[in-house]
Write a structure and sequence with these properties.
The complex is a heterodimer of chains A (294) and B (167). Chain A has helices at 13-23, 34-41, 77-82, 84-89, 91-97, 103-108, 111-117, 124-130, 148-151, 224-230, 235-243, 246-253, 263-293; strands at 6-9, 27-30, 49-52, 62-65, 68-72, 134-139, 142-147, 152-154, 157-158, 165-172, 179-187, 190-202, 205-214, 221-222. Chain A has 294 residues and is of the alpha+beta class. Chain B is globular and about 50 Å long. Classes of the chains: A alpha+beta (294), B alpha+beta (167).
């Protein structure tokens, strides 16, 4: 049974922001509600009002904008999994979204809610970090945009202020030369570990590489130091570098021992999946090029 | 179902449930599961994990599978809801129900209404799913008895049956 609350419908971004400013701590944004209703049921969160943002049409758009795709905060995981624009222009994201929880959660839960809740065990952030995505939030003083990595602050914590609303996520498409891959291992619908990779090759060497890992520590992270070490070397060198990066991975990812595995196990698996994802990303570049030549 | 108090927000709802219209006020915090089981007395839909993981409370809202435990009842205003009770018409079972019986697609049976409603949503969206599409779609419906192979066989058979009757 859920504790009592009142629902307020909002019809525009301005409307929602002014209600958030007026009500402060007494209101919580209600989008898909997948996580929110569970928190309310278990008394992990108390609120007098649910601010329903579903009627705001602008938040449910998916639009191609030049070399990127702008995704509204209310777009569901299921739409990101199936939408033709996302599948065509951001295929790794569509693949990651197809693995979120189960069909019912995907149909109800939204990308904006997912990022704002910042549950450490979640798929989309890992994929979005590889794309260098940024988020736009609106507050009483207007809009501000920031890189997703800066928006994610820690476990269940983001840079979103209590009177702000996440409006959209801008996701630049990967340059044509980059192949990509998203891998995860999971137990009972919740990922234990997620890895996203994108890479390109030039004259046998890895020209550009992007690597992200999620679900191991407090939040999803880009592994910039590891990327820098791998860049410029050959694929064989990259395997060796990843294998020798255990202490870096442990320090950076901050794994803990829990029911999903020991910290040591998670660092080991992170290395294995990073190697595989990088190899697949490089393979996907070649496939893309084969496709063009053919 | 929440006990009514004076400061409770009541929302007007008009909904079609299993082909019949219902209308009336519902407390804002009432879940669709409470509405179905307690208010309407349709107890085929099961309450289990209450965290949108197990699938026992699956019903269809406008043909989409929903965890009724974690979905506000007021959201169904203007929509149609299909529960396990609405699958059979005039004592004629749905091909899915027939197939689950023939293949013994259950052991204890507690998860079965959710399995069947989830499969119903799949067949409405895709009348000829592959085995992999079935297992992926139903991966969110947990069967603690482990009847999965028989459940998949039931859905495959119902899909074949459904397509034959259409032709």
């Amino acid at each position: 049974m859920l504790p009592p609350f009142k629902i307020l419908h909002t019809h525009s971004i301005e409307d929602a922001v002014s209600e958030l400013s007026r009500l402060g701590d007494q209101a919580k944004i209600y989008g898909g509600g997948t996580e929110l209703l569970i928190l309310l049921r278990h008394n992990l969160l108390q609120t007098e009002y649910l601010l329903n943002i579903k009627p705001i049409a602008e938040l449910s758009h998916i639009r191609s904008v030049e070399d990127s795709v702008r995704i509204g905060g209310s777009v569901t995981h299921r739409r990101l999994e199936t939408d033709p624009t996302i599948r065509d222009r951001l295929p790794m994201l569509a693949g990651a979204e197809s693995q979120v929880a189960n069909i019912r959660v995907r149909g109800q839960g939204t990308i904006g809610g997912n990022l704002c809740f910042n549950d450490p065990h979640s798929d989309p952030a890992t994929a979005l970090l590889v794309y260098d995505a940024s988020v736009t939030v609106h507050g009483p003083n207007g809009a501000r945009q920031m890189p997703l990595q800066g928006f994610l602050r820690g476990m269940y914590s983001t840079a979103l202020e209590p009177d702000e609303l996440l409006v959209s996520i801008d996701v630049p498409c990967l340059p044509a030369k980059l192949g990509s891959s998203y891998l995860r291992i999971h137990r009972l619908q919740r990922p234990t570990l997620t890895v996203g990779a994108a890479a390109s090759r030039r004259n046998g060497a890895i020209e550009e590489v992007r690597l992200a890992v999620g679900c191991v520590g407090p939040m999803a992270l880009r592994l910039t130091e590891l990327e820098a070490k791998i860049q410029g070397g050959g694929p064989d060198d990259s395997r060796k570098i990843i294998r020798e990066s255990k202490s870096y991975l442990k320090k950076t990812l901050e794994p803990i021992d829990d029911l999903l595995g020991s910290a040591e196990y998670k660092v080991y698996i992170a290395g294995v999946l990073l190697e595989r994802a990088l190899a697949q990303a490089l393979e996907n570049v070649e496939k893309k090029q084969d496709g063009k030549n053919g | 179902m929440a006990e009514r108090t004076d400061d409770m927000q009541m929302l007007p709802v008009r909904v079609n449930v299993n082909g019949e219209n219902w209308q009336g006020p519902i407390p804002a915090q009432e879940t669709l599961l409470e509405f179905i089981r307690v208010r309407l007395g349709l107890t085929g839909t099961k309450r289990s994990c209450e965290s949108q993981v197990c699938g026992a409370c699956t019903v269809l809202v406008d043909e989409q599978p929903i965890s009724s435990c974690n979905y506000l009842a007021c959201e169904v205003d203007g929509k149609s809801v299909l529960t396990i009770e609405g699958l059979s018409k005039n004592d004629v079972l749905d091909p899915l129900q027939e197939a689950f019986m023939r293949n013994i697609g259950a052991q204890c049976g507690f998860c079965t209404p959710g399995q069947i409603m989830s499969a119903k949503a799949l067949l409405l969206a895709n009348s000829s799913p592959t085995r992999q599409e079935i297992t992926e779609w139903l991966s969110g419906n947990i069967c603690r008895c482990g009847a999965y192979p028989a459940i998949v066989a039931s859905v495959q058979e119902a899909a074949r049956q459904g397509n034959r009757s259409v032709q």
